[in-house]
Amino acid sequence: MSVSKKLNWLYVIFSVVFTYKAMKKTTSWSKVAKWYDLYLKNGKETYQNAVILPNLTRVSDIQKGDKMIHIACGQGFFSCEFSGLGPDVTGIDISNKLITMAKKNFSKNVKFYRVASENMPMFKDKTFDKAVIILAIQNIKNIEKTFKEVFRILKKRGKLYIVMGHPCFRI
C-alpha cells in the first residue's frame, strides 16, 4: 500500500471508543461559518474535497435509494455532495446560523433541521440506512446520548461512519 493511501486511511476512522470528559464542551462553528462556507465553495483541493469525500464515499458505498443522515452537517457541503450520488439525505446541526446557510445553499436536494444530535424526535425508529459524523465528534456535548439516538434511528443493519481529524492536527 502506498504512503498516500496509508495516510488517507489515517483520516478515515470508524471507531466509536472515545472519551471526551476532559474536553471543553463549548466549541461551535457558528463564529466562523461564513469563512468555512467560502473555504469549501472555493477550494477543490481542500482536505474535505481531496481526502475525506472520496474515501468516505468509497467505504460507505452510498447507493441510490439509501436513506442517509448527516449529523452535525454544518453548512451542508457533505450533505449536498452525498445527495448527488442518489441517496435521500437529511442534515442536522445545532447551529441556527449553519442550518440557515445549508438551507440557502443546498435546500433543493437535502432536508435540513436545526436540532441537537442527542434528541431527534422528528425521526421514527429505524429510519436511516447510513449515518455520518464528519469532523464533528469532538464538538458534540453529550456523545453518549447522541450514540443512543443515532442507533435508535438507524435501521437494523444500518451503519454509522465517523471521520475525525487526528488530535495533532487540531488547531
Description:
This protein is an alpha/beta fold. The chain contains six helices and five strands. Helix 5 (96-106) links the parallel strand 2 and strand 3. The chain is globular.
In a few lines, what is going on in this structure?
With 171 residues, the protein is an alpha/beta fold. The chain contains 6 helices and 5 strands.
**Whole-number radius of gyration?**
15 Å
Spatial shape: globular
Given as residue ranges, the uncertain stretches (5+ residues, pLDDT < 50) are 1-26
Helix count from the secondary structure assignment: 6
How much strand content do the residues show?
15-25%
Describe the strand arrangement of the main beta sheet, using strand numbers.
Answer: 3-2-1-4-5
Whole-number average pLDDT? 81
Largest β-sheet summary: 5 strands, parallel
Terminal-residue CA separation: 29 Å
- State the helicity in percent bands: 25-40%
- What structural class do helix, strand and pairing data support? alpha/beta
The counted number of beta strands is 5
Helix/strand order = HHHEHEHEEHE
